[in-house]
Amino acid sequence: MRVAGSSMSPVLRHNDLIFTYKRKKINVNKIVVVNVRKLGFIVKRVHSVSRDCVRLKGDNPRLASSVCDADIPLTLIAGTVFLSIRTKTISFYGHDIIVSINFFLV
To answer: Does position 105 have pLDDT exceeding 50, yes or no?
Structure first.
């Protein structure tokens, strides 16, 4: 999936390619993809988790989102981001590793 917009900048940028996996447990500060009916797929960071909902936030303080002010049901989470690819860059979330071809594992 490709990122559209800059609400998650600087971690994720417009046109970054992201990969997700489905998790049973959603953790605070993880980046997730959520399928919101009227907006489609959105990418945000988990701000808080309750029993059956999450609250999200974007990383870019200059941009606001109506999704960040709402309780989002856990059932709408399509996946947790584990990998992003930018031009000559790959980021794995949870680890920092740099390899010779400019791939970054975060």
So the answer is: no
> 10 in a domain, yes or no?
no
Structural domains of the chain, count: 1
SS3 (DSSP) at 75: helix
The answer as to whether 11 is a domain residue is no
Separation of alpha carbons 13 and 104, rounded Å: 14
**Phi, psi for residue 68 in degrees, rounded to 5:** -75, -15
Domain coverage including residue 94: 17-105
Which tokens belong to 67? Answer: 């999704």
Mean pLDDT score of the chain: 83
How many other CB atoms are there within 10 angstroms of residue 16's CB atom?
21
- Structure tokens belonging to residue 55: 């609250």
CB neighbours of residue 97 within 10 Å: 11
Query: Within a domain: residue 3?
Result: no
Tokens standing for 28? 């605070």
